[in-house]
Amino acid sequence: MDGGALYSIGQLARRTGLTVKTIRFYSDRGIVAPTDRSPAGYRLYGIDAVARLELVRTLRELGLDLATVRKVVDRELSLAEVAAAQAEALAVQIRTLRLRRAVLTAVAERGASPEEMEIMHTLARLSDGERRRLIGDFLEAVFGGPDGNPEFAAARRSMTPELPESPEAEQVRAWVELAELSRDPEFRAGVRRVAGEHSAERDGVGPRRDIVAVVRDRVGPVVAAGVEPASRQADPVVDELVGHYARIVGQPDGAALRHRLLTRLENAHDPRRERYVELLAVINGWPAPESLAPVLDWAVAALRARTSDSRAAASMS
After folding, report:
1. Which domains does the chain show, CATH number per domain?
2. pLDDT by residue (tens digit) across 288-312?
3. d(Cα 172, Cα 180) in Å, to the nearest integer?
């Protein structure tokens, strides 16, 4: 057939791959109007109907409603405008589906109760502003307000999660767990205690490097070498840690200082704090952090082994 030929609905169906019923439906709604009618009253369509129907099919497969499709084919709306709006709508739908999938996966993995699932769902659906307020409340409870101790500014930034606009399911699950953790009063108190101890250490003299960082760097090789915390081979390392801490806080070495250092490391050795850092890395797309558990385990055990006698004596006096 040439460009001036007319097609019946059956012929149009064969050319487009659409059913007769579908074409009639679009025709009844004025989306693809007939060009003429046969002597028997049957609808006839021009060649342009083929192009319109192919466009309609594509737009419908992309999820556009009929009213929008009609505006596009009638050029009341540009295809670019519709595509942009539809892409935005799909982005919202994808985000919603990711949130739902993340919550359901977390419920399945954790065996959560209906009440826990409701909390997780609520946390997952928070807006960007609501998420920031929730984390801001946690950081303020731990470090004080933004105008508080300036030394905590870097710590606040390093502990702030930034969920991407289009997060992966793993990031959403991590966010939900981190949000739950940040609302835990005991966890808040523990982090606040460590922050307070760290701040108090700044009142000392000499080197100001955080003692936990010193433990990580000094004890790591010892742990790797298999040195037992209570062994004589560990004595020089413990003495070095105690000496460094003495310079940090400006106090002499002795039983009181060693008890203080032990308490400091015990407080820092909170699995929940390490879990927070792990979740933060997932959310922010950072490399997985190195676990401090082995070096803190070793340092705490080594100090306990060397302070147990003095503790016992103190308790008897």
Report:
1. 9-74 (1.10.1660.10), 86-185 (no CATH), 194-316 (no CATH)
2. 999 999 999 999 999 999 986 544 4
3. 12
pLDDT tens-digit map of 200-250: 876 544 446 789 999 999 999 999 999 999 999 999 999 999 999 999 888
Model confidence, pTM: 0.64
Nearest in space to 83 (alpha carbons), one of 54, 97, 63:
63
What is the distance, to the nearest Å, from the Cα of residue 263 to the centroid of all Cα atoms in its chain? 32
Can you say whether residue 196 is alpha, beta or left, with left for phi > 0 and alpha for psi between -120 and 50 degrees? alpha
Give me the amino acid identity at 45: Y
Q: C-alpha angle 123/127/128, rounded to 5°?
A: 110
Task: Tokens for 148, please give them.
Answer: 């508080």
* Spatial contact of 203 and 277, defined as CB atoms under 8 Å apart: no
Question: What count of residues does the chain have?
Answer: 317
